[in-house]
Amino acid sequence: MTIKIMIVIFIGFAGGLGVGSGFVAFLTVLGIIPRLTQLSKTMKKIQEYEWAVVFGAIMGTFASLWDPAFTLSPFLLIIIGLADGVFIGMLAAALTEVLNVFPILAKRLRIDDRIVVLLMAIVLGKICGSLFQWIYFIDH
């Protein structure tokens, strides 16, 4: 192997270790999964949540390496997309509750009395960013 290929392999491996370590730290140190189970009142299913995250991370890694193409019904894709959105929304809710993100951000921006405006800006930004990605990158 050439030196360039060895460097690319090393950088890719180091990047993967960095992202994986950050993901594990995010989930364990902040206690995201236990808080998510508390919010959804499903504490008895905590191991299922943990295995779902591990399986999802592994499948996401494989999907990013292989670039799979699925031929599924649009109706099934809508259901899968909604389930993904609910999960991400609950994960974000658990994270913001654990970290008290919005009150801290509002205080730093000096808009303590406008937290609802801050929330709406974040929600609308997420919606616009998602729509931009789907309209621009998926259709082209």
Written account of the structure:
The protein has 140 residues and is mostly helical. It has six helices and no strands. The chain has helices at residues 3-29, 32-39, 46-66, 74-99, 101-108, 115-138. Helix 2 (32-39) packs across helix 4 (74-99). The chain is globular and about 60 Å long.
Fraction of helical residues: over 70%
Q: Topology as H/E string?
A: HHHHHH
**How many strands, what sense, and barrel or not for the largest sheet?**
none
Q: Uncertain segments of ≥5 residues (pLDDT<50)? A: none
Which secondary-structure class do the elements indicate? mainly alpha
Q: Span from first to last CA? A: 36 Å
Report the average pLDDT across residues.
Answer: 80
Name the beta content range. under 5%
* Rg measurement, Å: 19 Å
How many strand units?
0
Gross morphology: globular
- The helix tally amounts to 6
Which descriptors apply to this entry?
mainly alpha; 0% strand; globular; 140 residues
Summarize the structure.
The chain has 140 residues and is an all-alpha fold. The protein has helices at 3-29, 32-39, 46-66, 74-99, 101-108, 115-138.
Please write out the topology:
Layout: H1 3-29, H2 32-39, H3 46-66, H4 74-99, H5 101-108, H6 115-138
